[in-house]
Amino acid sequence: MPQNGSRLDAALGRLLDRRLSRNQLRRLTITPEGAADFSSNAYLSLSCQPAVQRAFLARLQTATSGSLLGSGGSRLLDGNSTFATSLEDTIAAFHRAPAGLLFNSAMDANTGLFSCVPQPGDAIVYDELIHASVHDGMRLSRASRIPFAHSRVWERNTEPDSAGKMQSLEAVLTSLLQRPDGSLFASGERSVFVAVEGVYSMDGDVAPLNEIVECVERCLPHRNGYVIVDEAHSTGIFGHRGRGLVCELGLEHRVWARVLGFGKAMGCAGARQYLINYARTLIYTTSMAFPSLASIETTYDFLATGQAEPLLQHLHLLIHETHNLFVTLCSKHKPPNDVLRVNSQVPKSPIIPVFTRHPRSLATYCQARGFM
Q1: How far apart are CA 27 and CA 19, in angstroms?
Q2: CA angle, 249 as apex, 128 and 44 as ends, to 5°?
Q3: Interstrand relation of 265-266 and 99-100 (parallel, antiparallel or unpaired)
Q4: What is the pLDDT of residue 266?
Q5: Rounded distance between C-alpha atoms, residue 299 and residue 291, angstroms
Q6: pTM
Q7: Domains and CATH numbers, the chain
Q8: DSSP letters of 225-239?
Q9: How confident is the model at residue 193 (pLDDT cuts 50, 70, 90)?
Q10: Cα–Cα nearest to 256, from 171, 175, 323, 193
């Protein structure tokens, strides 16, 4: 055993050394006190708002001594509560969906959804930049998986794509119908799930969701095309009161499912019941404790009552100011594109991509000077 253990340690060490040599080694870090935070996904800083904190503490006071800490077990055993089911109804109503189902994280929601809903013979067509959690779910799925070029919906040229070049959504769906089993997709017997994000977490660009929905409905007129939108980075930012991109565009009845940062508003009540029965990331995990549920309810109440509107306006001011500073910096110093580059177009989301061939050394340089 010791010898085998040492071999394993050596093998793992070599893999870590290889990652270190590529400057790709990940480490857990702690944000220094007083650092300017350009890294967090908490775009509205809701957890820092005194009104949110007071409301959260008040909700904790309503918990009984037995339910405040821990949850007991899986929701299918003794981990469910009327508070959790009521919160799901609140979230679904807020996002104008028939039903909602809470997972412990968006990662669990994506993995559970994509691993169990698509059936053998179905197809998952996904944006090439889709989140890692969707990839994890797809790997567990028994459906086929086909990527399409990032946010490229229509096939606008007449020449065939060169080898290795990613195709548009339209071209992928058309090719799917031309497969030997394509008649099953064309007739609506088999399902096609189209996975996209509302706002992409790396580049911060917004999905052309209207075009995506139109393309799916045109290519699959028998209504067997199901669009799934990960709204983790668009909830709270887009739509009235932060309801998300789907609600902003009025696509609630044309998008089958949404995965959100807190609540998961599913596109139909039947899917909720199916996930309760088959989503392993829901069935075999301990349910959320009361403090987590209370924090979600507090946040949604803050959004629904319009209290977050000043924060959202301030966020847009920060986005424009930060982008202007980046553009001015690049214009003044004219760094080579491989060192530092930003898009000249004003971003539509709080995610402002900074392009460089030296991301980790640049991050280390900024962190040493108080910028996360």
Answers
A1: 12
A2: 80
A3: antiparallel
A4: 41
A5: 12
A6: 0.90
A7: 82-288 (3.40.640.10), 308-372 (no CATH)
A8: EEEEEE-TTTTTTSS
A9: very high
A10: 193
